[in-house]
From TrEMBL:
Domain ABC transporter: 325-559
Topological category with respect to the lipid bilayer: Multi-pass membrane protein
Pfam families: ABC_membrane, ABC_tran
Example GO molecular function: ABC-type oligopeptide transporter activity
Keyword presence, Nucleotide-binding: yes
SMART domains: AAA
CC per GO annotation: plasma membrane
InterPro entries for the chain: AAA+_ATPase, ABC1_TM_dom, ABC1_TM_sf, ABC_transporter-like_ATP-bd, ABC_transporter-like_CS, P-loop_NTPase, Type_1_exporter
Organism: Variimorphobacter saccharofermentans
Protein name as catalogued: ABC transporter ATP-binding protein
Subcellular location: Cell membrane
ABC transmembrane type-1 domain residues: 14-294
C-alpha cells in the first residue's frame, strides 16, 4: 500500500507534519497547566497573569492547527483514494477477457466498494492517527524523563509489554479480517445475482427462496463480522488494561515524590496530564496497529490485482486484414473429458458472409469465442492472412473483429452516446448506421432524436431496440469482421431479415453469424452456411446446395417453415 500512501508525497508529509504538531501541542498542555498552578502558588499576580496569557496564546494556536488538519487531511485522502480506485479500476479493465471471465465480477465490485472502504477507514485514516498518537507518546516520555527519570523507566517497561501484545495477535486478527472480507464478496455476488433476476423471481413466485438465500449469506457475513469484532475487542481490552496500569503507576509514584518534596504540586499536575498523553496514546496506538495490521489480507488481494502483468508477447502485427482466416484441425474442450470443438477445418474469406447453424450445444458460440481468443485451442492451428493467430498482437485482432453479443452493454446517456460509445462520428455516418441497423424509425419517433436519453442500462428501449443499437455500433466501427451471436433472436422476422440483408450487402465486411432462425429468405443471402453438430462441422455450402443434399441441414429446415432450435 506504500505506493498509494506516498503517491502524493508533499500532501502526505504536510498532513503528517500537522499530526506531529498536534502531538507536540498535546504534550505542551501539561506544562501550560503546571506553569499556571506554580504561578498561582507563588503569590505573584503578575506571574499568574503572564501564565494565563501564554496559555491563551497556546489555546489559539492549538485551535488553528486543529482547523488546518481538518482541511489538509481530507484533501490528501480524497486524492489518494481517487488514485487508488482509479488504479484498481484501470487494472481490472486492462485484463484480457479470458482472465477477467475467470473471476466473478462481484469480486471486483466488492474490492472497489467494501475493501476500499476498509482501507480508507482502517489504514489511511489510521496511519495519521498513529503518527499523532506516537508523537504524543514519545514527547510525553521525554517530558516525564525531564521531570523524573525514575518514573520514565517504569513507564518504559509497561510500554514494551504493551507493544509486544498486538504482535502476538496480528496473524489471528488478519485471518479474521480476511474471512470477513471474503464473506462480503460472496454477499455482493449473491445480491447481484438475486437483483438481476428480479423479474424471474416475481414471475415464478420464488421471492421466499430469494429471501432465504439472502438471509443465509447475510447471517454468515454478520457472524464473521461478529467474530472479528470479538477478537478485536478482546485485544483492545487487554491494551486498555495496560494503558490504565501506565496511568495509575505514575500517579502513585508521583504522589510519593511530592510527599518527599522532590517535585512540586505543579509538576505532579503536569505528570498526571502527561499520563493522559501516555496511557491514552499508548492504548490508541496499540489499537491502531491492530487495525492497520488487520487489513493485511486485503492489501495482498489488491496487490495481486494491481501487480504488473508481463507484457503480451507477439511476433506479428496485423494493421489490415487482406485475405482469409483459416482453422485447421482445431480441437477445444472446456474439460479434458469432452471436446466442445472437434477437428474443425474452415476458411473465412474476406468480404464473404457465413452463417453458423445447428442445435443448441453444437459449438457455434464456442467457435466464435475461440476466434476472439477468449479460449486457447487444445490443438490445431488458426491462421489469419497466413500468420499464427496466437502470435498476432491481441489489440490488432480486436481492431479487425467486432463481436455483437446477446447481452448488450448500455449505459445511462443519450442514444447517440450509446451508439458512438463517445467517439466522434459525423451525422451522415450515424444516420447510415442507424438505417442499416433498423433504428431510423425509432430515432424519428423520439422527441430529441439521437440526443434522447435512454435511461439506466437502456431501460427506455426494448430488447430488440437495444440489439439494433449494438449492430449500429459495429457498423460505425468499420471492422473487417463482424461476429454476431444470436443478435437478431430478439427481433421479429421482418426486422431481422432487413438487418441481416443490409449486413450481407456490405461488400468489404466479413460476416460470421450464429443463428437459430432457419429462414430461407435470410440464409440465401449468405455465401456459405456452416452446419455444426456435437462440436463438428458436418456440412457446409450455399443454401440451395445444402438443401438439395437432404442431409442434416435439410432436416433442420423442415422441422418448421421458420423454426428456432
Amino acid at each position: 500500500m506504500r505506493k498509494y500512501l506516498l503517491k502524493y508525497k508533499l500532501s502526505f508529509c504536510l498532513t503528517g507534519f500537522i499530526c506531529v504538531l498536534q502531538g507536540l501541542l498535546n504534550v505542551m498542555m501539561a506544562f501550560m497547566l503546571a506553569n499556571c498552578i506554580d504561578a498561582a502558588s507563588s503569590g505573584s499576580f503578575k506571574r499568574f497573569i503572564t501564565a494565563l496569557l501564554i496559555y491563551a496564546v497556546y489555546i489559539l494556536g492549538m485551535t488553528g492547527i486543529d482547523i488546518l488538519q481538518k482541511i489538509i487531511k481530507p484533501i490528501y485522502i480524497r486524492k489518494t483514494m481517487t488514485y487508488l480506485k482509479k488504479d484498481i479500476f484501470q487494472h481490472i479493465l486492462s485484463k484480457d477477457i479470458r482472465s477477467f471471465s475467470e473471476e466473478n465480477s462481484a469480486k471486483y465490485i466488492s474490492i472497489l466498494t467494501n475493501d476500499i472502504g476498509m482501507i480508507e477507514s482502517d489504514y489511511i485514516e489510521n496511519v495519521f492517527n498513529f503518527i499523532w498518537q506516537v508523537t504524543t507518546f514519545l514527547l510525553a516520555i521525554v517530558s516525564v524523563v525531564y521531570i523524573n527519570y525514575k518514573l520514565a523507566i517504569a513507564i518504559f517497561i509497561v510500554s514494551i509489554i504493551g507493544f509486544y501484545l498486538p504482535q502476538r495477535f496480528r496473524s489471528l486478527l488478519s485471518k479474521r479480517k480476511a474471512v470477513y472480507s471474503t464473506s462480503l464478496e460472496m454477499l455482493t455476488a449473491k445480491t447481484k445475482d438475486l437483483l438481476s433476476g428480479f423479474e424471474v423471481i416475481h414471475n415464478f413466485n420464488i421471492a421466499w427462496k430469494a429471501n432465504e438465500l439472502y438471509d443465509d449469506i447475510n447471517m454468515d457475513v454478520e457472524r464473521k463480522k461478529q467474530n472479528f469484532s470479538i477478537v478485536s475487542g478482546v485485544i483492545n481490552s487487554l491494551t486498555n488494561f495496560l494503558g490504565t496500569c501506565m496511568f495509575v503507576l505514575p500517579m502513585i509514584v508521583g504522589g510519593y515524590f511530592v510527599y518527599l518534596g522532590t517535585i512540586t504540586v505543579g509538576s505532579l499536575i503536569a505528570l498526571i496530564q502527561l499520563m493522559n498523553n501516555l496511557a491514552g496514546p499508548l492504548s490508541q496506538s496499540l489499537q491502531l496497529v491492530n487495525r492497520i495490521n488487520s487489513i493485511g489480507s486485503i492489501t495482498e488481494k489488491i496487490h495481486e490485482l494491481t501487480k504488473e502483468e508481463p507484457e503480451e508477447t507477439f511476433t506479428h502485427r496485423l494493421p489490415v486484414f487482406e485475405n482469409e482466416l483459416s482453422l485447421e484441425h482445431l480441437n477445444f474442450g472446456y474439460t479434458k473429458e469432452k471436446l466442445a470443438l472437434e477437428d474443425v477445418n474452415l476458411r473465412f474469406e474476406k468480404g464473404k458472409k457465413y452463417a453458423l447453424v445447428g442445435a443448441s450445444g453444437s459449438g457455434k458460440s464456442t467457435l466464435l469465442r475461440v476466434l476472439l481468443r477468449y479460449y486457447k485451442p487444445d490443438s490445431g492451428d488458426i491462421l489469419i492472412d497466413g500468420l499464427p493467430y496466437e502470435q498476432v498482437k491481441l489489440e490488432d485482432i480486436y481492431k479487425q473483429i467486432t463481436f455483437i453479443q446477446q447481452n448488450v452493454f448500455m449505459f445511462d446517456g443519450t442514444l447517440k452516446e450509446n451508439i458512438g460509445l463517445y467517439q466522434d462520428y459525423s451525422e451522415d455516418k450515424l444516420n447510415e448506421a442507424c438505417k442499416i441497423a433498423g433504428l431510423s424509425e425509432l430515432v424519428k419517433g423520439l422527441p430529441n432524436g439521437l440526443e434522447e436519453s435512454i435511461g439506466e442500462a437502456g431501460n427506455k428501449l426494448s430488447g430488440g431496440e437495444r440489439q439494433r443499437v449494438s449492430i449500429a455500433r459495429a457498423i460505425l466501427r468499420g471492422s473487417s469482421f463482424i461476429l454476431l451471436d444470436e443478435t437478431t433472436s430478439a427481433l421479429d422476422n421482418k426486422i431481422a431479415y432487413s438487418i441481416e440483408k443490409s449486413l450481407c450487402d456490405l461488400e468489404q465486411m466479413t460476416l460470421i453469424v450464429v443463428t437459430h432462425k432457419i429462414m430461407e429468405d435470410i440464409l440465401k443471402h449468405y455465401d456459405e452456411i456452416i452446419v455444426m453438430k456435437s462440436g463438428r462441422v458436418i456440412e457446409q455450402g450455399p443454401y440451395d446446395e445444402l438443401y438439395e443434399k437432404k442431409g442434416y441441414f435439410y432436416s433442420l429446415c423442415n422441422v418448421e417453415e421458420t423454426y428456432e432450435l
